[in-house]
Amino acid sequence: MNTRNDAREWLAPLTRRHFFGLGALGIGTGALASLLAREADAANRRVFTNGCDGPTLRTLPANAKRMVYLFQSGGPAQQELFDPKPLLLERQGEQLPDHVRRGQRLTGMSSNQASIPLVGSPFKFAQHGQNGIWLSELLPYHARIADEMCVVRSMFTEAINHDPAITFFQTGSQIAGRPSLGAWLSYGLGHVVDDLPSFVVLVTAGQGDQPLYARLWGSGFLDSRHQGVRFRSGKDPILYLSNPDGIDESSRRSMLEKLTELNRRQFATELDPEIESRIAQYELAFKMQASVPGIVDFSDEPAATFELYGEDARIPGTYAANCLLTRRLLERGVPFVQLYHQGWDHHGDLPDQIRKHTKLTDQPSAALVLDLKQRGMLDETLVVWGGEFGRTSYCQGLISNGNYGRDHHPRCFSVWLAGGGVRPGIYGRTDDYGYNIADVDGNPIEPTKHHFTPGAVHVHDLQATLLRLLGFDHTKLTYRFQGRDFRLTDVHGHVVDELISG
Questions:
Q1: What domains appear along the chain, each with residue ranges and CATH number?
Q2: In terms of DSSP bridges, do strands 425-427 and 149-156 run parallel, antiparallel, or are they unpaired?
Q3: pLDDT tens string 327-383
Q4: Taking CA 199 as the corner, what is the angle to CA 139 and CA 299, rounded to the nearest 5 degrees?
Q5: Is 423 exposed, middle or buried (0-12, 13-18, 19+ CB in 10 A)?
Q6: Residues 110-126 as b or e (16 or more Cβ within 10 Å = b)
Q7: Nearest to 421 by CA among 385, 383, 457, 366
């Protein structure tokens, strides 16, 4: 009997080396179990949607099957477009009263002004449609869709500067890194079309103002297949989609098959779900080589289409062309299109600048709604138009020869919705100065994100309502990450039932 070996074997569990060896084995087992559980959970939620497998998390009847978000980056001035305030013209040049400002913080661009004079809009307003929607003379084509529009005048947000404000609308958080609205919808709907992305992004070319970052349409901690795919103007609508010189379709197919085989071997070893996502994205890119050229080619559109959208629709990358492309994408089954138009940040020279951008966007925005309606698609398509905040009722800088500017204003601003189960009309109101959300008697109110205030719509309230129209309970469309269930509306948000028809 070897007592020395027997003693060593008996003492082995007590050594640090043995202890950490066993601990590492336990950690590895736990990690494997976590990965397998995630895969099993995804597999349990897989269904077949239009022939493509993917998870669907709709738990409610859906008013809309698809969505378009016409995001007007920079903050359009509601006083010039949707919310007339004649009192501002009557009191032009007078100081903003303290009882109206109510201690609201100002940006660094106007907080040091010796004077913050009220300034009214020189543009005329008129009522349109059965619901008497007030529209500026800058929006003559919007008058044609007045009976389809729900103008929400009582939006409010927490952010006062562009990047956090845009990020808040697009991801539900002012801090970058969360999944975007389109990514949440892709995650919730699953992949619904075989040869196109579930989430497409379009940006008007040549209108650079406040920057737009790819994280605004990113997938955050969701699977990377849910991020938005940007279509660009020019020869290659999607970067690196075309085959390089000397590579034909057969060679590309052969390369993808070999690459897929290598990735599957890697997945069998590492069990990393992103490897499967990479395989799926390579396959989608191959299919898009055939589908995308036909979608971006407008040669099959009749002359009447360009009369409806405007002649700019013939020029790739314009807002008009992107609106027409949006309709073509929706027809092919893409469930979510995000269209960005920059240039609404009018701190100065507002009258001329807003004329320019309404001329670029008025006709195509209205045309998209009319086109969807005449094709029988509007009832199942949710259209959203709006920016990240509004503009102040006082002038930034000096009022000079009819020229003025407006600073950022998060306390009240306007967006509009159409189609997809939306109840047309006007929702909410602002005070006579256009500075605060008001109750039915016109008295200013102080809504918060924590408690729903009738007549006021917080960013998370809007997001919750959009998800509800698309068939999702915003409290249940969640994803567990770092030990917490995340959702688009964070821990806030209320569905605004008054915005939903029926």
A1: 68-238+291-499 (3.40.720)
A2: parallel
A3: 999 999 999 999 999 999 999 999 999 999 999 999 999 999 999 999 999 999 999
A4: 65
A5: middle
A6: beeeeebbbbbbebebe
A7: 383
